[in-house]
Design brief:
Length: 148
């Protein structure tokens, strides 16, 4: 199982999230990418697609750049961390069809729980994690047919 972690920043958020990831995934199974170009090149390497991609998005511009390569994420489970809670940002984030999303100002505890579930359960790719109203995930449900 390999996990890709994308972040263009080297700030406190990146360090906290990286610690969460490294407590759940062995370091040799984590690939870190700092540019959209390097991430894009890696995602084009068939048949070595990653199992999970964690995207720590730090700006609206970066989110738009990621959306430009969204076809490369097909059949990959995405955990998306958005830069803000604006309605337009969330709408753009949903276009990536993430299994789970959170926000850069969160404590990443929910990311740890989601990673545990993803790593410990082999589930059908037709399933996705759905957030509850209190900013935590609350269920795993079958994705609508058009969302695959």
């Amino acid at each position: 199982m390999n996990l890709l972690f994308f972040t263009s920043s080297n700030n406190e958020h990146k360090k906290r999230l990286q610690r969460v990831i490294e407590t759940r995934v062995q370091k040799e199974n984590i690939e870190i990418y700092r540019t959209i170009e390097s991430l894009s090149r890696r995602l084009r390497q068939l048949p070595n697609k990653p199992s999970i991609v964690i995207l720590l998005v730090t700006s609206q511009e970066e989110l738009l750049d990621i959306l430009r390569i969204r076809k490369l994420f097909r059949d990959i489970r995405i955990v998306l961390i958005l830069p803000d809670r604006e309605e337009s940002t969330v709408a753009k984030g949903h276009r990536l069809y993430p299994r789970f999303f959170s926000y850069i100002d969160s404590d990443f505890k929910e990311i740890a729980a989601v990673l545990n579930k993803m790593l410990n359960h082999k589930y059908d790719e037709d399933w996705m994690i759905v957030r509850g109203t209190n900013d935590t995930y609350n269920s795993i449900t079958r994705a609508p047919a058009g969302d695959k």
